[in-house]
Design a protein that fits this description.
Oligomer: single chain
Strand content: 5-15%
Structural class: alpha+beta
Order of helices and strands: HEEEEHEEEHHEEEEHHHHHHHHEE
Shape: elongated
Number of helices: 12
CATH class of the domain at 108-298: Mainly Alpha
Length: 456
């Protein structure tokens, strides 16, 4: 082994040693409450394995050796892909108990949670589903894990497959308890006694915290705690005092995952399922790992819909934040342009309204001439002119009668004009000789209500 590996292991006497004449220890992987895990090379196959060596004092007790042998034999029968494979077990000449397991490449769930915090909902559900598949087989064989926690969930990478195709592996059934039943008949003297508490307080079921008899539903409670932790980034109950944490598991209702992580795309149906798994009474939880798995997989459409909705809301918020200032600026420009156009229109209309009646009459005649082709009556010649007698300087001449102009033009717009009907009569200059002044023509109403006006 390299100097770096040797120095990192400190004074571990097993580094470089050969155990049971076939496992040469080359590296130290990690340590736990039951023992230490090493990387070893198995002879004569030449393959690498994970070798778990239990603490030396455990090999001195006959009952512990019997329990270890029984559990190792049962665990070696587990074949599910989501359970770490037990390849070999035994006791060395030095009295050390060991388990040879498949060597996994990847990371523990605990390391991922420390690095990323809360996991995506789809990933959390996928990991929980892998754990439940492993438990389904173990519970069917009468094995209760009793210590499910992130340190015992391994996310194994498979060569040639992407990260999202990693395999969930449940490890360390070392303190599993044989459930009362056919497989446990005659083994009670060496089984874990009721009243003894094993496990990790943060992931411990209420009945386990009270030292009661356990079954597979205790593991399902731990899966609920794992789901809670993966969805929110924290366990439901945390405290430096293990006794306080265990008391919370026994008496305190955990908060909802959606309340702790409102920004996450967690559907309500998933929150309800997690709450059921964390029920204080075993009868209130899913009764088997298969039942739990079926309910979890049925939430696929709800999880996908929640993810789409969360993505849509995020995109809409980003668009509003970017586009809001330009929109406010254009609204101000549009309002200013509308006001200017209105003022110009009023000014032009007033200028047109101030023209003389003669000009308006001439325009009306032009309009009538233009529409005369469609109206024979309007095209008729005007009546003969009459003679106007001379008037004295004081005589006031009334203005000619206004023609009956149309109220709207051909485009349906109201015609703005000035009227002289109510205007006071103006004095006219005296005339030296009688003149003939043509009478203003009073056109007949045209059947076509619209006329053509210059500039309209």
């Amino acid at each position: 082994m390299s100097r770096e590996v040797f120095e990192a292991a400190g004074s571990d006497p097993l580094l470089g040693a050969t155990l049971a004449d076939r496992y040469t220890i080359v590296d130290r992987v990690g340590a736990g409450g039951m023992g230490t895990v090493y990387r070893a090379e198995q002879a004569p196959l030449g393959r690498e394995v994970a070798l778990k060596v239990l603490r030396k004092e455990l090999g001195r007790d006959a009952e512990t050796v019997a329990r270890f042998t029984r559990e190792a034999r049962l665990l070696s029968q587990l074949r599910h892909p989501n359970t770490v494979a037990i390849l070999d077990f035994g006791q060395s000449e030095e009295g050390l108990l060991y388990l040879a397991m498949e060597l996994l490449e990847g990371e523990m769930l605990s390391a991922r949670l420390r690095q990323r915090g809360a996991l995506p909902v789809e990933e959390a559900v996928r990991i929980a589903a892998g754990v439940l598949r492993s438990l389904d087989e173990a519970h069917a064989r009468g094995i209760v894990h009793r210590d499910l926690k992130p340190d015992n969930i391994y996310l194994a990478r498979v060569h040639g497959r992407p990260e999202d195709a990693e395999v969930v592996k449940v490890v360390d059934f070392g303190i599993a308890k044989i459930r009362d039943g056919e497989l446990a008949q005659g083994l009670d003297p060496v089984a874990t006694q009721e009243g003894t508490v094993f496990g990790t307080p943060r992931y411990m079921s209420p009945e386990q915290a009270q030292g009661r008899s356990l079954d597979g539903r205790s593991d399902l409670y731990a899966v609920g705690v794992l789901l809670f932790h993966m969805l929110t980034g924290q366990a439901p109950f945390t405290d430096d005092d293990a006794v306080i944490v265990m008391a919370h598991h026994i008496k305190t209702e955990p908060p909802g995952v959606r309340r702790l992580a409102p920004e996450r795309a967690i559907p309500e149906s998933l929150e309800i399922l997690v709450a059921r798994a964390l029920a204080k009474g075993p009868d209130e939880r899913p009764q088997t790992a298969q039942d739990f798995l079926v309910e979890l997989e049925a939430l696929g459409p709800d999880i996908a819909a929640a993810a789409v909705q969360a993505s849509f809301l995020t995109e809409e918020t980003a668009v509003i934040m970017i586009d809001a200032p330009p929109r406010r600026a254009w609204i101000g420009v549009a309002i200013a342009a509308t006001l200017i156009a209105t003022l110009v229109g009023v000014t032009v209309a007033g200028a047109r309204g101030g023209r003389t009646d003669a000009t308006a009459s001439a325009r009306h005649q032009v309009a009538r001439a233009d529409t005369g082709r469609r109206d024979p009556v309007a095209a008729a010649p005007p009546p003969a002119a009459r003679v106007v007698p001379p008037a004295s300087p004081a005589t006031l001449v009334a203005p000619a009668a206004q023609p009956d102009l149309p109220e709207y033009d051909r485009h349906g717009r109201r015609v703005r004009r000035s009227s002289s009907r109510n205007r006071a009569a103006r004095p006219t200059a005296p005339q030296s000789a009688p003149t003939t002044q043509p009478q203003a023509t009073t056109p007949r109403r045209n059947s076509q209500p619209y006329g053509t006006f210059e500039g309209m």
